[in-house]
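Table 4 source record.
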Amino acid sequence: MTINNKSIGIALSGGGFRATLFGLGSLWRLNEVGLLGRLDRITSVSGGSILAGILAHGWSKLKFKDGQATNFSEIVALSVQSFCSKTIDIKAGIKGKLIPFKTAGEFLSDRYEHDLFGSTGLKDIPDASTGHAPKFIFYATNMQTGRSFRFRQDMVADYVLGISRTVEVSLADVVAASSAFPPIFSPIILETDPDAWEKPDRDFPGLKNLRKRIVLADGGVYDNMGLESLVDNVDIVLVSDAGAPFEIDQSPFEDDLLQLGRVRDILIDQTRALRKRWLVGDLEAGRKMGAYWGIGTRIGDFHAHEALTNDNAVTASLESIPTRLCEFDEKDQGHLINWGYALADAALRTRGGLNFGPAASWPVPVWPLS
């Protein structure tokens, strides 16, 4: 589908349940203005992949009219809110340490299967061949090749390994791989038939072994916003980013080994910052159409007429909410959903040529951001 002959896609960032809920608010506003059913591509990482998985799993049940799903709240929002009221990281992490022959990542996948997706496979997600549906692209990081590993309805892919259109993988495993943050939940192991791959054009020693047993971790290790396959494939790029802000540490570890965690965080943050600056620079220069909004974005910077809220102590505090897969109470859920919704509303009305009227009310009215 296109909007004024332009394709459109959205990236849902990583950031634990915080990103899942913030992204839900973003999709809620996209749905209200009739964009959800017109999306061509949805890319996701980690916490964003939980949301994308729920959306993909329920897509065939959504009732669209003029691009708007009239039952979005029932099929998507309630499922997200229910799941984010549970703590799943502690049990999965402990079981992975105590129970032999099964990893924490596998226990994480079990929770996704039990609570959300059942036995649904990646290939069971609706796509263009079965009626209109966007391409859902879930990102993980291939720890062997150092590249992003992409799960899509019709294929899995890696720039080094190539493309396979026959690999069977469950949606629960896909989302687990995308959200398997190291060192707790990674790695997720994907075993495939080495002969079921096509491309790359070059061959090299060990390629078959790399295709046979693929070692995956959280997609945010490579790209926490999931931008790579989005910016070159759609005309209008939208980004909902609830990634963790980089924090100043006045007393970092100086031990040879303990300092490595801080080094990792610096490297990931710098990569993320470069991608963000590159995207925002292209948007501001008019080289790309679209909009970026992040959990730390000041809503006043959009200069949106009749914005739902202003920048205040409540909105500023949301950036400090932990990025875990743990229980979020109704207040934090409501605030995060409403903040993603308010920023998406302001961004859509002022950027990328997407001109809509202002939102009339909060999606979670009992927790306004004032």
